[in-house]
Amino acid sequence: MSVTVAKSAGFCFGVNRAVETVEKAASEGANVATLGPIIHNRHVVSRFEDLGVRVLHSPREADAGMTVIIRSHGVSRAVLEALQARNVQILDATCPFVKRIHEIVSRAEQEGSLPIIIGTRNHAEVEGIAGWCSDCRIFETPEELENWATGGEISSNAPVCMVCQTTSTEKLWKKCCEIAKKQFTNLKIYDTICRATEFRQGEAAELSLICDAMVVVGDPKSSNTGRLAMICREHCEKVALVDNASELDAAFFRDV
User: Does residue 125 carry a catalytic annotation?
Assistant: First the structure.
């Protein structure tokens, strides 16, 4: 059996940066915690717990003097301010590409535009983005966007700014852009898909067209992992999404 490993396999820049931030802080002996799991990967989180790094679920859990690391997904303005009030050292490991979206929606609202976010509502990144403006709309599918845009809540000439979750698929984003361009005459579109994510998704599509089976390795709770598996299933009938090697079944590779 021939096995091809994707060139883009592994963590992206933003995740690598966040992981390295935790590693450095832990090595310096600081009382370290992350606000939420540093990334959606239980193996990494477990390794850091073994090093004494706690996972906080809210700023209220932070003790004075603690070093608290904000994960790559970022947080809302309110969460950041609550953390600042706890008298802790903050290490902001928010991915720069996510930070840029925070700035876009904040500036758009100041200029009188309504921010529209294309992404998963309950995803930490999207919740954080929405928290940098006082009013926005979040849509998970092109159909949701179209139903709202044509439903009469907003006029076609209202100023609108549209961004997307960094891990959105190019296919989903382009469809949403087509709909928005037809409905709004005063529209600003910012393509905020992470280029590393776009490359990884493109490579997954290419490999799934020529392979008999695809294995996507990652945490099932990860948006990145889920979208990669979804893309592979569009072209390949045999796709396994696994958290680790023990979840692979030899029978899956029969006739591959």
Answer: yes
